[in-house]
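Entry 14. Structure prediction run on the chain below.
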Amino acid sequence: MASSIYVTTAEAHCGKSLICLGIIEMILRKTKRVGIFRPIISQKNNINKDKNINLILTHFNLDINYEDTYAFLQKEARTLAGQGKHDELINKVIQKYKNLEKQCDFILVEGTDFTDEGSAFEFDINVEIARNLGCPVLIVGRGDTGREVDDIVNSVTLATESYLEKECQILGTIINRANPELAHEILMGLMEKQQDKSQVVSVIPENQILKSPTLKEIAQHLDAEILLGHEQLDRQAFRYSVAAMQFHNYLETLTENCLVITPGDRGDIILSALQAHQSKNYPSIAGIILTTGLKPYNSVIKLLEGLPNIVPILSVKFNTFETSKKLNNIHSYVTVENQAKISISQKIFEKYVDSRSLEEKISAVKIRGITPKMFEYNLVQKAKSKIQHIVLPEGKDPRVLQAAAILSDQEIVKITLIGKPEEIENEIINQGINIDLEKVNIVYPQDSPKFQAYVNKFYELRKEKGATPENSRDTMCDVSYFGTMMVLMGDADGMVSGAVHTTQHTIRPALQLIKTKPDVSVVSSVFFMCLEDRVLVYGDCAVNPNPNAEQLAEIAISSAETSISFGVEPKVAMLSYSSGASGKGADVEKVREATKIAKAKKPELKIEGPIQYDAAVDKSVGSQKMPGSEVAGQASVLIFPDLNTGNNTYKAVQRETGAIAIGPVLQGLNKPVNDLSRGCTVPDIVNTVVITAIQGQLA
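Output returned:
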């Protein structure tokens, strides 16, 4: 997994380019595999490249395809958000980021520009993306002349608090383009507001060269015609100066690198301004803009063309007032063509930002609990890495068919549906399900060429339990038994059922035929509880009503192993109604004994018990009740003492928080079989099939 940083702002024109240039320069001293990623770029079409991406790719000569560096155009992201397709938006951002991550050791993620309407949408989506990508955040603010210190400090403080509320990690805050006279006061204000005093805090004073647009930028913004001075369009305008008085009075108002604005018929202003530019007694000007669409007489043009090194002269159709108004809306950018600005940006970053501390903060970032979206993405990618064959016995159920359509279309797994082909096909037509039947197998048990072999195998395995050739045949007509036998015989890698059938109907065939692993005495289950900001593992909430201490220890170990298989670092909390040594009673003693057994069997496992739920998941409570614990306040695997507690807790959390509960995922079988709730949704089925496929890879 690549290291990363998310550079974001709370408003437009904070000068992220300077910060990004400095960070990439800093990281390239340690590694060459560096990437730039922008989830949403503000350009309106695919014709021109994003300025900031192009700047980083070109200046640092990064070997990355431009198309890999962003997920959406601004209009695309807004359309999806307007259609309520928030999950689709986040999922694609994650997908594009993870693809780029394969090429890089470090990725700089740059947030949106806040130059379009809907800044609230942009702020919220930046927070959501940073959280789901797991990137630590660097917040950049703006300290322009004319803004009060409190306004500047409060703006970034509010942004910081919003990111912290969503469990994002904050590396620091940088105020850019600050009024030099207030820079120290701004710095003191930021440090005073800091919750975490270890964060990097910097204030970068405003730089005249960086904030001033070039004549090329001005010409593009105004769609101006360039009459003269094409070769000097890199000149910068430090100030705009309207010439409306007689030239002998106007000359006194000229300042260094000012842009003269005058109507196109004022030949006297044009000539006098150019004369002043060439005179050692007056400052040099940046150029001249001629307004109202009027142009100098041909005789004047002829005169101007004969002057050496003439500054750019532009012509616009707007009147002088409109032109001045439009000029005030121009914002200068650091572009790849302007090497002077790039060089200045890097020097300023080195001077005002403590790059060593920032680099240390980036290196010290600890990966927190994985978010639900990243968890689901990782599951799908893992399932795709080695395609498994999953059998779905309830082939006629519309939800199962819709899930099969998604799974086969995305080529996540190979699917076999059990049922009569004509009934399944009629259901597909009646429900309007878009499924490619060439990608899905349909098997009716009695018509299968392997039916008799399955009957014989069942009889062989169960004859000592009273099976006969006749009742074995009847048993194999049952879709759950037939599907389980497919898994046992290696004709499928796993089975998912329960959308229509009971849990007992799904699990009994697995216990009879597939059986438990050699080192496992009890089949148990876990739920993956996808909360807003992390994924927890709950066990056992579906199978064992009242496990004893030995069984509870085994459930804890199995649940920890399952969590590892699915990318969740196990920190196991053995739950009870008391924490540590404070409680007494048979129920507490069972949990205490189970914890001792689990520790003896797996001494490397981080496990704590007995412990109460709040002490297990809340850092402040955990530190008070069990100080020094590696698990308290940060548990990721929670083991309930009995089915009554576990089942009610997972359902309460699911309903009250809106968490996604994936499961139950059975553990302990030789091959994977998983049960669905009869109230399951299509996403539930998809997620369970994906998990079953991953279990199949590990079987």
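The radius of gyration is 34 Å.
Filed with the rest of this week's runs.
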